[in-house]
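pipeline/complex-builder :: batch 7 item 3
reading input block
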Amino acid sequence: MASQLDRETVLKVARLGRLKLADHEVDDYLNKLGQILTYVEQLNEVDTEDVEPMAHAVELQNVFREDVVRPSLPRDLALSNAPKTDGQFFLVPQIIDAGG
Amino acid sequence: MHTTTIIGLEVHVQLQTKTKVFCGCTTAFNPTQPNVQTCPVCLGLPGSLPVLNREAFTLAVKTAMALNCAISPYTKWDRKQYYYPDLPKGYQISQYDLPFSEDGFVELEPLETEEGTGETRRIGIIRAHLEEDAGKNTHDDSGRKADSQVDLNRAGTPLVEIVSQPDLRSPSEARRYLEELKLLLTYLGVSDCNMQEGSLRCDANVNLHIHTDDGHKIPTPIVEVKNLNSFRNVELAIEYEEKRQLEQWKKTGQKIGDVAKETRGFDAARGVTFAQRGKEEASDYRYFPDPDLVPVIVSEEFLEGIRSSLCEFPADRRKRLAAAYQLSTYDASVIVGQGLEFAEYYEEVAKLCGDGKQASNWVTQDVLREMNERNQTIAQFPLRAAVLGNLLGRITSKQITIKSAREVFATLLSETHARQVLSSHQIDQIIAEKGLALVTDTGAIEQAIADVVAKNPKIVADFKGGKQGAIGPLVGQVMKAVKGADPAVVRNLIAEKINSM
């Protein structure tokens, strides 16, 4: 079954991912994402009537670390990848909405 | 027409761990040194791997047990995806469909009012889950539109989010729920609940049910008031919403479902809530299981280990204190409400002096008053329970009067210097110096009574004429002459003396 992917959905996904797509890119992703969805949709053909839902792909469980402080990064190193800093803080364009 | 206010609270509580929930960075509150408590994990750098802090999970389970929640045998972590500058990974590690606990409750003590004692209120808890905190943004409010500053020291600190049912019915009840929650969590030592440092934060979901005169019930649209940073502000914000939503309904007639859920902030300076621009498609968090973190399967042994380490809950302690020491529920509530150390202090005093009621009077009045005047906690208070218990024991055994004990209490405290711990030995000294020991030498008392009665024929006549209160001044005079006499004994002796005349 062909998926119902449309341009609007592609644009919404792009917007959620903060991606700006040119028109031809929208067409390109519509095609590529559609192929992925079609491939994954094959799973719909499997009978999963008596199969427990799987919440996680890894077999491991209960991996913990102890509550022991380890050295943090020096500030200059922590800030070194940031596009903009004042030497103390990460700087970002002013956030108008104070809610978070 | 009348209205009912419907309130549900979402509370974020910071757990008292040494390190963050998924990495070994310290959780110390350190706003003056930004960005010195980060590492590749909490900065969200590629290739880093988060690993769950065992202590954070243990404290979270303790919290859920205190909230009477069911602990899920299987729990996992999910990515909640949104973009905000204080969220370095572009997602928050949280719990979506399989939180570690759900379906609990908090009980609120019945309120005692002039109309009598109310009912115990049971506030449902929908769920409690474990997640990581974001960093902190600081905005330039000079008006020059400078960049916002981001400090990620706090990013990755363990939080338990506690979501209540919409069971709260008034601003003051919301406040009482928060107070009970804070008491519970500080008792258990899972959080310090320090609101100034952001260890306890609250969002309130509020709407009204408008009951019209023709029998209809109209719910108004639900509003979420975010980031309330004090209990008082929670109360004020809800009070404001009650008025605003009623006016809004009268103006527009809008009811629930007509408009999207609105997010508002609270301006404490002006005492009003204000509309916040909604995050773009905020509801589309696209949760999915975090592949970096493995599920936790909780065994019965693990739960039993935690259960056996739990201290007595405040509600149980109130009941026990009231029964064991013959206290009123009010007194028991005051004692328990002051925190775990205060309740321990009280019990030690009560046991030592052998009179729970006497101990309660002193601890809830004298000790609390002095603590507040000195701006001290009970742990800092110089008069330790052993010494106060010793002092009050002397009242019980009739060595000194309550009045004398107050004098000793005041003298002891006035003599304290910083960090000096008071001893019972000093009580003996003060009693001796001030001659406060209860005089049991009846000869001295009888002599004083004879003198006083002889000098006050008018009062004697009044008393004989039926004025019971007339002998008050005589008691005072005898007490002055024989320091440390028991006023009740003196009063009886004077009455006997006059009646025999």
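note: DSSP finds 16 helices and 20 strands in chain B.
queue -> next item
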